Amino acid sequence: MDVENEVLPTSKERLEEIGQPGPEGPIFMVNMLKFKDRAEYPDGRETDLTGREAYHLYAKVAEKLIRGIGGEVTFDGDVTFLNTGEVEELWDEIMIARYGQRSDLVDMVRTDEWQAAAVHRVAGLKGELNIETVASATSVQSV
Question: 56, 40, 58: which is closest to 48 by C-alpha?
Answer without folding.
Answer: 40
